[in-house]
Amino acid sequence: MEFAAPALAVADWRRRVFALYRSVRAESDPAAGHALWQAGRDDLLMHHPASPVPEDERAAYGGARVGDYRPELRFDAVIDTDVKPDRWEFVSATDGVIPFSLIGVLHLPAVGDLDVWWLESYGGGIFVPLKDALAGRSTYGGGRYLIDSVKGADLGGDLRAGRLVVDLNFAYNPSCAYSPEWTCPLAPATNKVDVELPVGELSG
């Protein structure tokens, strides 16, 4: 797979991610959707020229290590919008300051609270990162992403009713987990939970 310019490869990557999550949302069985997601994401990571896995490591890369699917960690959650306005700015080495504003919080039973952020940069998007008690051990130390709608990572939910589908089994590693050439917004303190979540993409 070759592209005339690196930007076109990234555009194709984004297109494929949007299509993958669209297929996942269309799957009636969440576990089957998860298997579809895992296979699709592995294919991208192992073979796509815009993969964050360094090119000289892809031939030996066998795909992301993913925890077993646990249905109790899937939520159709209400976004609690009764929150004090807040702003979070991530300083990127390549894109300057990336601003986010708080739009709500998710109260997940037996897990904890996660802030819901809105990307204020061009394009906008809902962003929900996650850092659990295994961070730095069996999950990426900087935290993982659950929802990043500007890049297609969106499991659905009735937004008119203020709801999001939040499935912790779909937590995935940001690009910077694969290579220092990438800089990524990492989970702020308000998106850290005290429970261990050995699901989704793991370290290693």
From TrEMBL:
It comes from the Bacteria. It holds the Pfam family DUF1684. This is DUF1684 domain-containing protein. It comes from Kribbella rubisoli.
